[in-house]
Amino acid sequence: MEILSIGNSVLNLFFPERCLNCDQVIAPGNPLCVRCTADLPFTHWKPGKSNLAYQKLKPLCNIQWAHSLLVFRHDNVTRKLLHYLKYHGHLNIGRLLAEKTSSMIELSDFQGIIPIPVHPAKLKKRGYNQVIPYAETLADNAGIPLLVDFLHRVENNPSQVFKNREKRLNSIQNAFDIHHQTLEGNYLLVDDVLTTGATLSTCVNLIRSKTKAKFAVMTMACTV
Ligand SMILES: [Zn+2]
Known about the structure:
alpha/beta, single chain, binds zinc ion, two-stranded antiparallel ribbon
């Protein structure tokens, strides 16, 4: 028994990391194997005004352009990855997606990156904001500041899942505030998934009503 126990400890110690999608053994630190990384459902959009992300946000707020890295479907790998990122602390997923984004889009012209915040109560419970590893890596790669304290969440909304579009928009309208009002120039607002655009457009409209900042929007994924 003792030998078995030691054996298990050693096995656990050296238990190899596995791809979150296909379960294949992979090099430590990566969420996915090389093949699953290459096979990610990229949108292949151009950052601009012709893609679906911009079309979703255009009626709701004034932005320069929008872009999403991955296609989000209820049965695809994106959903699985963002679930692991948000609920199981696999923060390296955010970093991987940021590296992919940085290799495709030049972001150094922005004055800074603003991540969509989570409510302090949720932050305390979960221990992290799932958007930060993505936003932080984008900012580092572009050599621009990450503004983590500018925008904050003042209302902890219950799950949005069962609300229709109109109710989602109404319930989120007063959920955010900003800490100071001296923001000028071009900024990139970053979130995990773009669905209806209610959250992102609320933040854009709030900040634009109180500052002279202009915005583009980048998300890890977009529902199609
Ligand atoms: Zn794999």
